[in-house]
Amino acid sequence: MSRILNGATPERIGAEEFIPPPKDCFAPNEFLARAALDSVLRQPASHFGDTTQLESILRRTEVERRREKYLALPSREELIDNRRRQQTAPSNELWLALDLSPDDEKHACASAYDGRLTPGPVLGRFLLKAPDGGPRQWSAAQLTELAACGYKFFARRVLLLREPDEADYEQTALETGSLVHEILYAIFTQAEPSDPTSLRASARQVLDEFHRRGRLGARDPAFFELEWASIEAMVNESIDHEIEGQAQHEAATEMHHEFPLNFMLSRESSTVAMGPLEIMLVGQIDRLEIYRDAGRIRRLKLIDYKTSRRLSEYAELLKPARFACEDMQMPVYALGAAESFRPGLASDATVEASYIALKNRDKESEPQPIPLALLGGPLESAGQKTVAARILNLVAGAVAGGFEVDPLECSEYCPYRRVCRYRKPVFHS
User: CA–CA separation, 124 vs 274, rounded Å?
Assistant: First the structure.
C-alpha cells in the first residue's frame, strides 16, 4: 500500500497503521467489544440500538469469565494430592484422616454453567427411586464414576451419552473378562477345592467345554483362537496359584464364589427434600473366604479378579491414602460382606482385601487389613468418616445437583473428553 504526498515520490505505508496486530484482533475482549459496537456487522444502524443483543453478549461474557475462574481453581485431584503429601497422622489414624471434600472456594463458585443442577423432585426420583417405587439400586461401578468425576457420572448415567458398541472380529476386554470369570466360577464350584487333582481335572474339562461353545459363537474363529490362548494361560496359572496357596496358607472354613450383595444404606437426618436418604447397594464379590473359630467369624477375606498385569496399581487402591477415594469397588464389597455376616462376626473380627491380576506372574497382591470401624453400618449419621458415610455423601451430593467438573482422577482418554470443559493442568503430577 502506498500514498503520494504533495506530488512527491510514492511513500510505502505499513499495514499496521490500519490493521491492529493479530494478537489484539483475536483476543476475546477485543472480539466481543467489536461485536458489541457493530464494527463488524453489515448493517450497523439497524443493530446499534438493539439492547437485547448487547445484553446477551454481556451475559455470555460474564458466563465465560465465571467459567474461566472456576476451572482455574484447584480441583479435588490436586487438593487430595497435597493433603496426602502433608499427611502427618499416626499410621493407625490414616484411614480416617483424609479429607475428600472439594475446595470451599471452588464449591462456592460452581454455578448452573459448571456442573451444578437445580435440585428438584425429578432429579431426586431418578437417583433414589426404582421404576417400581422402591429404592434405586446402586453398583460399585456407578459410585466409582461419581467419586472420580461428577460430570462423568452425569454424562453417562443421567444424559446417557454413550458411544455405540461396534462389533469387531476380536473380543472386547469386557467380554474376555466376563468369560474368564465364568470359567473360574465353573471350575471352583465343580471341583473339590482342597484337592489339586480335582482342580486340574475340572479346569481341563471346563476349558474344553467353554472353548467348544466359544468357538461356535465367535465372530471370527481365528481371532477367537488367538484370544483363547491367553485365556487358557490365565486360567491354568490361576489354578497353579490356588494349589500353591493351599499348601502355604491356612484353609478357609467356607469359600463363596460370585457372592451376591444386596443391602440397604440409609441416613436418619437428611437435607434431601424427598425425605430420608435411602439407597440399595448391589454387586457380586468374585471370591469371599470365611475363617471361623468356635463358630464365630474371625476373618473375612475378599478377592477380586482382574484380567490385567497392573497388580501394583490395584494394590495401591487398598492402601489407606487411596481407599474409598476415587475407586469404590472394594470399599462397597467390604461393607457388603461385613453386613452380610455381621451377626456372626467375633468382637475382634477383621476384614482383608486383595486383588489377583491374572496376567501378572506374581498373581495376588498382599492382603490389606481394613478396620471394621471404618466400614460403618447400614444406618449412618451425618459427619461420620466411614465407607457407608462416604457412599451416602456421594449420593446426597448428586441429589443436591452437584455434578461439578471437579475430578479426583482425570484421564486424558475419558470418553467424555470432547464434551467436558475441564482441562487437566499440563504439569500436574
Answer: 7
Q: Any bridge partners for residue 278, and if so which?
A: 266
Tens digits of pLDDT across the chain (429 residues): 444 444 555 555 555 555 666 666 556 666 566 655 554 444 444 444 567 777 888 888 887 887 788 777 877 777 777 766 665 555 555 566 567 777 777 777 777 667 788 888 899 899 999 888 888 999 999 999 999 888 889 999 988 888 766 666 677 788 889 999 999 999 999 998 889 999 999 999 999 999 999 998 888 888 889 899 999 999 999 999 999 998 888 889 999 999 999 999 988 655 545 568 899 999 999 999 999 998 899 999 999 999 999 999 999 999 988 899 889 999 999 999 999 999 999 989 999 999 999 999 999 999 999 999 889 876 655 566 789 989 999 999 999 898 888 778 787 788 888 888 777 766 444
Question: What are the residues whose beta carbons fall under 8 Å from the beta carbon of 167, sequence distance 6 or more?
Answer: 219
Q: Are 181 and 286 in contact (CB under 8 A)?
A: yes
**Would you give the end-to-end CA distance of the chain in angstroms?**
52
Q: Which among 228, 191, 198 has a CA at the least distance from the CA of 213? A: 228
